[in-house]
């Protein structure tokens, strides 16, 4: 249904919130582990994300636990007030050398507006090729498709997604 390899590319969790948290936290931890010198991880998202994305990002951007301070910079890109859609170029313009993840929902759970995931994925693939050539790590691309799956085509290869979360409901 999503054009993924069922033997290597699908992980089942208890729900969408757990999967979204896992992707965010794993991206930050992987960035910190592989960043030399240790830089502050940067994540790009939109201002209309589901709370299962927005809340962990807000928590990580302000959190300091007792063992290790986790200081994440988050850029919330605004959607158009007329269309409810984010511009792919605005997402790309928010990129920095320390960006480790872009996370954009496919279909908004309140308005139903479909975001330009395919365009973001195509643009990011070009940027990632340049990043790798310059010795920088690739930026992961995540899409929460909970409200899109079964309603619109969701092909992880075509959309150039690294991570996709969907839910059983």
Structure description:
The structure is a single chain. This protein is of the alpha/beta class. The chain has one domain: Type I PLP-dependent aspartate aminotransferase-like (Major domain) (Aspartate Aminotransferase, domain 2, 3-Layer(aba) Sandwich). The chain is built from five helices and five strands; from the N terminus they run H-E-H-E-H-E-H-E-H-E. A five-stranded parallel sheet has the order 2-1-3-4-5, sandwiched between helices. Helix 1 (16-34) runs parallel beside helix 2 (51-62). The radius of gyration is 15 Å and the shape is globular.
Question: How do you describe this structure in short?
Answer:
This protein is α/β, with parallel strands linked by helices. The chain has helices spanning 16-34, 51-62, 88-93, 117-133, 156-159, and strands at residues 42-46, 73-77, 99-103, 140-144, 163-165.
Biggest sheet architecture: 5 strands, parallel
Number of helical elements: 5
Structural class estimated from helices and strands: alpha/beta
Indicate the CATH class.
Alpha Beta
Provide the gyration radius in Å.
Answer: 15 Å
Q: How big a fraction of the residues is strand?
A: 5-15%
Shape: globular
Q: Please state the second-level CATH architecture.
A: 3-Layer(aba) Sandwich
Mean pLDDT: 90
Work out the helicity level: 25-40%
CATH fold annotation: Aspartate Aminotransferase, domain 2
How many domains is the backbone divided into? 1
EC number: 4.4.1.16
Subcellular location: Cytoplasm, Cytosol
GO molecular function, one term: transferase activity
Function: Catalyzes the decomposition of L-selenocysteine to L-alanine and elemental selenium.
């Amino acid at each position: 249904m999503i054009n993924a390899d069922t033997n290597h590319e699908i992980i089942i969790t208890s729900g969408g919130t757990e999967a979204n948290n896992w992707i965010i936290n794993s991206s930050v931890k992987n960035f910190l582990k592989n960043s030399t010198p240790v830089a502050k991880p940067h994540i790009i998202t939109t201002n209309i994300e589901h709370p299962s994305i927005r809340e962990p990002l807000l928590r990580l951007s302000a959190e300091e636990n007792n063992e290790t301070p986790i200081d994440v910079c988050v850029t919330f890109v605004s959607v158009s007030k007329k269309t409810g859609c984010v511009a792919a170029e605005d997402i790309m313009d928010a990129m920095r050398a320390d960006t480790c993840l872009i996370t954009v929902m496919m279909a908004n759970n309140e308005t139903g507006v479909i975001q330009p995931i395919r365009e973001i994925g195509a643009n990011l693939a070009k940027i990632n090729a340049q990043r790798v050539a310059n010795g920088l790590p690739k930026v992961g691309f995540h899409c929460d498709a909970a409200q899109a799956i079964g309603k619109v085509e969701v092909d992880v290869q075509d959309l150039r997604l690294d991570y996709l979360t969907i839910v059983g409901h």
